[in-house]
Each structure stands twice: as structure tokens, then as C-alpha cells.
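Below is a concrete protein record.
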Amino acid sequence: MGKKSKSSTPAEEHLILPQHPSRVAGGTPIVDTHTHLISTFSAYRSKYKAGKHATVYDFVREVYRGHGVEAIVDVYCEAPEQKTWKEIADSALTEQDRKEKWGGLEYWFVMGVHPHEAKNYTDEVERTILEAMSHPRCVGWGEMGLDYHYDNSPRQIQQEVFIRQLKHAVRLGKPLTIHTREAEEDTERILKEHVPKDHRIHIHCYTDTPEWAARMLKHFPNLYIGITGVITYSTNLNTSEVIRRMAALSDSDPDARLRIILETDAPFMTPSNIYGALKDFKGRLPLSHSAMIPWTAEWTANVANERIGEPRWDTERVMRESRENARKMYGV
């Protein structure tokens, strides 16, 4: 019998991060505007079958402890939706529950159907989403949109389901969480046709062209670009260029702010620059989580300063501007 292969999964203790230098003295609290909490916990249980955290609440309390995670926006986007959504949302209704179960975290959520799942969109799925829209912890509709990279659903169906969801969300006055990938022309056309100019829009995990971002930011004054750890990846140049062009506006207005909101898209998109902070660690973390946000902010600040040639942004300023924008976008 051959030898058993050694597990490549790092020890669970490595999920507990060191403090980012910007947070040693406190600083702006973390608001993660896009995380998939159930998927993150499922990934954790899959990698750590004997893990110490038995429930999603245990995981959040312990992994986020001491990192200043003030609020998260959890995302449901399957078809059909996760049946546990209401139980989890109800667990955050009272301040006492949020303190006891969530460690004081402000839990919010959005719900919609991802373009990958558009082919499974039904009246019953829609009824579930409409029910969720009236929940006190629901702050938006999404993620929804178009994905022409994978084409997991036919493009015509993606467009039809996207428009159907937009009409409901606009009618209800709900902020929009948008997924778009390699579908700039159709996403722009549909949004401009069906969404009022002053509606609140979050373009989640931005990776498309800086030119498209500029057009959308100009047309929709309450639109924000979502920045995840993907900005740190060498395979993605577009997101950094979007930040450089935003920073260029400070040449004429030193107080110009970045129209971004920080997000993890957990359990995906672990920031690549986080590994320099992990001592005696080799390999890759199996999942991301909300306490990683400051590393994305640090990278964003460095990119912004490249354009202006001076350290006008730092991690704390990016965190602060993103936090203010999260409040404007989702009211959290």
C-alpha cells in the first residue's frame, strides 16, 4: 500500500489573520458589501471536516473577532434560493440577537438570480425573492446581470431574466447588485433602458474595461464600482486602471473621492498581497473572508497613488471612502 499523501490544506489557525497595520490603532470599520456567507461556511466545512466552528455564527464570531468587521451584505443568487435564508435573516432582527449570535456584526442581505442560474428562473423563484424584499434586513436585489464569459445560461434567457428582475427592483426602489462579464454592450443598453439615472447601482467585482466604467459612472451618478481581491491579480489589469482614472480626477480636485465599495466575493478572490503578512505560511488559503478587506484597500491605495505620483491615498482613506459609499449605496 502506498503512502498517504499529505494534505495541501493549511492548518485552520491560518484563517485567523494578523491585524493589518492600518488597523492596529483602530481605524475605519470593515464593511464587506458582497460576500456569500453560506458558500464560505460550506467551503470551510469542506476543507476542515473536524473544524472547530460548528455553525455559521460560530465561524463569523471567531474568524472576524478583533478585526473591526462592522457589517456585511450577504448575497443569495441561486435558483432556487437557499432555503436557510429566512432563518439566517431572522437571526439578525434584534440587537440582542446580533450581539449574541453575530458578535455584534450588522448582518444585511440581498437576493436575486445570478446569470449562470437564469435558465432556472421561475415564478416560484421570483415569489421567494419578492418575499425576501420585504424583510427588514434586505437591502437590495441581486446579484443579477449578464455573463458572456461562461454562458452557463443562453444569452437571450439571461437578458430576459435580467430585465424581469430589474423591473421589479426598480418598482420596489431596491438598490441593484449587478454581475456583468464580457457583456458590456448589452448590460449598458439594458440598464440605461430600464433603470432611472438616479437609481443606486453596485457593479460587483469589476473586471471589465475602464472605458465602460467611465461611461456608466458618468450616466448613473449613484453607481459604485465594486473592488474585490481580484484587483491584486496579475491576470487582471482593468480594475487597477479604473482606479488610476478615478484618482486622476484629484489633479483638479484634491478632495475627489473614489466611487468604489470594497467587497470580498467570499469565499473567492483572496487578495494576493495578504500572503506577505502571514508568517511561516506556505501555499494558498482555501477561502477568503471579510477580515481580508484591508489588504484590498491597501492595494487600491497604492494603485491610486501611481497615477498622481504622491501618497494622497492610504489604506485608511480608501477604507473610509468605501465605508461612506457603502452607506450611500445600501444604507448600511
Residues 38 and 84 are 9 Å apart (CA to CA). The longest helix spans residues 155-172. Strands lie at 30-35, 69-76, 106-111, 138-147, 176-181, 201-203, 223-227, 260-262.
